[in-house]
Design goal:
single chain, alpha/beta, Alpha-Beta Plaits, 8-stranded mixed β-sheet, 4-stranded antiparallel β-sheet, 8 helices
Length: 268
Amino acid sequence: MTPVRYDAVETVARAVCHEEGSLLLLTDFDGTLCEFQTDPEQVALSPARRQLLASLVEHPRFDVGIVSGRPLGDIKSRVALDGAVYYAGLHGCEIEGPHNAATAPIDDAELPDLAEAATRLDVIAAAVEGAFVECKRQSVTLHLRATTTEDRRRAESRFHDDTRDLLARQRLRLQPGDCILELLAASSWTKGDAVIWIRRDVERRRATSVRLVYLGDDQTDEHAFAALGSDGVSVAVGPRPSGARYRLPDPPAVEHLLGRLVEDITTA
């Protein structure tokens, strides 16, 4: 197996700040800004990382946003930044900016399938210690981080068997993640849609073009990477296969990067 090669933080920082102009920094939360926890409720943004983000928010060259699979209210309360910050929850289905907001609609025909999916996943979770189901407005998620490796494989196999006919109806789509399996309404937005919406809003507000920077660790972040454009800076966090241009190993490296960006804009 070929070892994963990570980029130096300094290399990524130079790619972000190497030219003049406005920058839009967007980042995932779990696994990118914060280390994973067995219980998702225990994930918290460290004061040091919050302060670094706050410094970027306050700088006139930067706009900053958080793009997460968590519900909008949850991600806002966990990040808790003051100032002109963008928050996108539910993989981009709920977006709130400094002066604008958007909510992606759900086709009513998808709601019965989401309810049926929740019932089926509850049965799977009940048979596996450590598994649980999370129901959001546009998705149903089977969480498996707290299970054993053997139980996780068994649960994943049953998930695919028990949802095959649901997916065949094409009103739901499968979004696998890190120790999760998520069924989303087919009409729901992706993080790529959120990136496009936020970029347009920032450029409308600034009356100029901006260069995008996106950091993310999960399969769901690939949609965001694809939406950046040729001048964007995409940064995958962790060893998962990715189409990102750059790669950092973990949230502490992301903290280091944020620190370097703050240093670069302060001394520029």
